Amino acid sequence: MNVFNPYTSLQTMKYPLIFFFLLLTLGGCKKSVDVEAVYAQMKNGQTKCLVMLDNEPFYQTDAVFKGNATARDNFFAMNFFNQYGGNYIFMFQEKGWYTMTSLKGGGDASFSNFMFGKVLDPKKNKGAGYLMMKGKIEPLVISKAKIVFKITGIAKRYPKVHEEDPSYDLEAFIIAKNIPFTEFVIPK
After folding, report:
1. Which of 31, 76, 155, 177 is a Cys-bridge partner for 130, taking CB atoms 3.0 to 4.6 Å apart?
2. Residues whose CB is less than 8 angstroms from the CB of residue 170 and which lie 6 or more positions away in sequence, other chains included
3. How many CA atoms lie within 13 A of 183 on its CB side?
4. 3-state DSSP call for residue 16?
């Protein structure tokens, strides 16, 4: 006759329970970006655009962007390309934006604060482009030598940008080191 022994039952379940607990705890953790470590490894004139869509990296990890930027009291814009044919356009208009902790971001089928894409098949001239539809822009560091923005929200793959079309969780960091500016006019 088998008698239920709670101690023996707990012992045999101990390792699967620990494994399950660790899976739940670690599985829900998002990867964090060490902005300072990324910046320290960059050369002057370089930008990193670290985009995560549904927790998956969008650009190659070694992608380095080059381009031009404009920074004014009421406007900021970047248009940058990487060595793999990827690009992004990031812009917004907001008076005194550099003093704010966050700005509202988003867009529609004709314009977005953050548009990013990459080449998938150069022979067939195919790529993938996304637009930020809603979210938030956080200017973390703003100077001529160092720019850091954090962008979070929802993106859609162009041209399917209607409400019923699939959405993707977006998290991005734009980190720039001594990049060229067409204009940099921000009060100190």
Report:
1. 155
2. 51, 52, 53, 114, 130, 132, 135, 151, 152, 153, 154, 155
3. 11
4. helix
